[in-house]
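I have been asked to look over a protein record a colleague put together. Thanks in advance; the entry in question is below.
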Amino acid sequence: MASLAHLHDPGVIMTRTPLRVSFAGGGTDLPDFYERDYGAVFSTAIDKYIYVTVKRHGAVFNEAIRLNYSRSEQVNRVDEIQNDIARECMRFLEIDPPIYISTVADLPASTGLGGSSSFAVGLLNALHAFRGERVSAGQLAEEASHIEIDVLKQPIGKQDQYAAAFGGLNFFSFRPGGAVTVEPQRLHNGALKALFECIVMFWTGHQRDSSSVLGEQKANTPFKLNSLLSMREHAVQLQKLCRNGAFDIGRFGRVLDESWRLKRELASTITTGQIDGWYRAALGAGAEGGKLCGAGGGGFLLFIARPERQCAVRQALRDLIEVPVGHEVHGSQVCTPFVTL
């Protein structure tokens, strides 16, 4: 743990933490699966962020703690905080009031891009800096996982916390006992640029609670092991494909399609008739493959489509809002106030 003593009591601490897109392997990062064997996820951080601001709250205010997110809280004790992640992060790091915490995001919450874990990672990063500490990406990921999974008992995996903390394009392995291996992917011959040029992503207009979807998926795990093993193999296939000098975007899209068709069978709430209709329309317009991001039930539809087919895909999904995305190489960063550390 490095010291940021020269920044302690800095006035304002800000962190910027990326959201993520998981291409394949989601669900195998749940303990109910990886404790039986191992899990694997192939994912990337994207250039959409959650920003967390932390500062010492002024003595002239009536409350000792003020939080601003999608709602506002003014309380005097940590145990009065309604935001579960904020409360438990403060408890975990033994942060004493007075304190002000604010967060804003580029995209809505509960949309399948790992936003809650990005918030947890970003807030922990900010609170460590507030205490004059700089910590590793691995420590941030493990602390966020502990708070969300062990303390708050969320039925989620560990991929989102690691994607937010490390950034970049990664192959994550989840081992029995909870150990995580991070393998950053170094693509050759412009493959990363080619990949992101073929990504189109659309907002379905529906937010969802991932906990309910993942809770059902968790209960179904013993009955869906073969599907999950195949989904893990899809993550391995994408890793091998991206390491291949002759990158095949068509094959990449087809693996996503195969994985999505398996994933939609893991729980009854993963997809809807409307989502399936949009998916069929995009493939009919020339998309190579795609998926619904995150646990399911709503959020963002992502497709792999060659540039010459993207106009047709956009026309097929003209009732949806397209959100351009790019690659983000960095994980959660401390910025204060204009310098990235």
Observations:
- Residues 3-8 have pLDDT under 50 and may be disordered.
